[in-house]
Write a structure and sequence with these properties.
alpha/beta; 2 helices; flat
Length: 88
Amino acid sequence: MRTVRQLGTSSDGTQVKVAGMVYLEDQFMRMVSAGYKAAATEAGANYREFNCNQDQAKETQTINTYVQDKIDGIAIAPPESGFFHRSR
């Protein structure tokens, strides 16, 4: 298993691509996002980030886009329990 310091390039020599996703624009999520970015920078990885702003459809669409773009890893800050459940 490789550590964060070893992730900068893949076995074929290309730069590793990672993404971070958060669900709110608040102080805590800004800190989470900054941590994602700092870890990616330290590892020499190409980093993308996205804030779904509590929109499950945007989150799903972005994850699908990342998969199509062959992102090597996605860090997702999970919303609190029941976040995406609609009340009846």
